[in-house]
């Protein structure tokens, strides 16, 4: 089981990988760049090479997360252009860092309506991935459905993937908190969720799990992460993921609120007692 957590990449990717091991993580996630900006980033290739070697030696898995402010469905042409080039760069960074996927949030229609949002998202994905031939998959993350966020259900996520011309370059990342807040699973319906993952074909493209409890209630459509076992989902429901043979080879990444990354160490230890 590859339980891990989100780690700051401020001191470079090698330092982040070392930190992950110090915390007892078997996987980790970093941002490709400042999460609130789409400014290009200078890549330290030497540092990355060292990190990739280290991760291989330790059997440590990495997942890259692209900036939060990315909107695949933006109605603004100039912003869409910036988004496309930023995500192309993120795919390259993922490749250099040795991450098999780059997580991106599904688009927000920002009042333009779901049909527009869907169409624009498909166009944007085609533009990002059309001429990309590398090994990295762009991973669509399910949303809580806050504001005008789209992509709450597995069916919708599959529909987006299949509407593009680049479906083979698109995978998924499932966030447990977002799914709970969107109302697509809880402790009682876990079995149905996994069944639907299988039935829709979602499961075979699932490459990472964001493992978070939720401060907000079931179906509240609010994206508020909570520490594992301290929220509305609870340990018992969340433990189903950990015991499920379907997810044994996937990075399971904590994005729970912490003041210090060291808190993840205890949280991971707690999960391992299940
Ligand atoms: Zn997430
Ligand atoms: Zn979230």
Task: State the main characteristics.
single chain, 274 residues, alpha/beta, TIM Barrel, eight-stranded parallel β-barrel, two-stranded antiparallel sheet, 39% helix, 16% strand, binds zinc ion
Summarize the structure.
This protein has 274 residues and is an alpha/beta fold. It has helices spanning 13-22, 45-58, 77-97, 114-129, 154-163, 176-181, 190-200, 235-243, 262-272; strands at residues 2-6, 27-31, 61-65, 101-105, 137-141, 170-175, 206-211, 213-214, 225-226, 251-254.
Order of helices and strands: EHEHEHEHEHEHHEEEHEH
The CATH level-2 architecture is identified as Alpha-Beta Barrel
Strand content: 15-25%
Q: Bound compounds, please?
A: zinc ion
What average pLDDT do the residues reach?
A: 96
**Morphology:** globular
Count every helix, treating DSSP H or I runs of 4 or more residues as helices.
Answer: 9
For the record, the count of structural domains works out to 1
What's the CATH topology name? TIM Barrel
Instruction: Report the oligomer.
Output: single chain
Helix fraction bin: 25-40%
Give, in spatial order, the strands making up the sheet with the most strands.
1-2-3-4-5-6-7-10
CATH homologous superfamily (4th level) name: Divalent-metal-dependent TIM barrel enzymes
Distance between the termini: 12 Å
Number of strands: 10
Uncertain residue ranges: none
Which radius of gyration do the C-alpha atoms yield? 18 Å
CATH first level: Alpha Beta
Instruction: Please summarize the sheet with the most strands.
Output: 8 strands, parallel, barrel
Q: What structural class do helix, strand and pairing data support?
A: alpha/beta
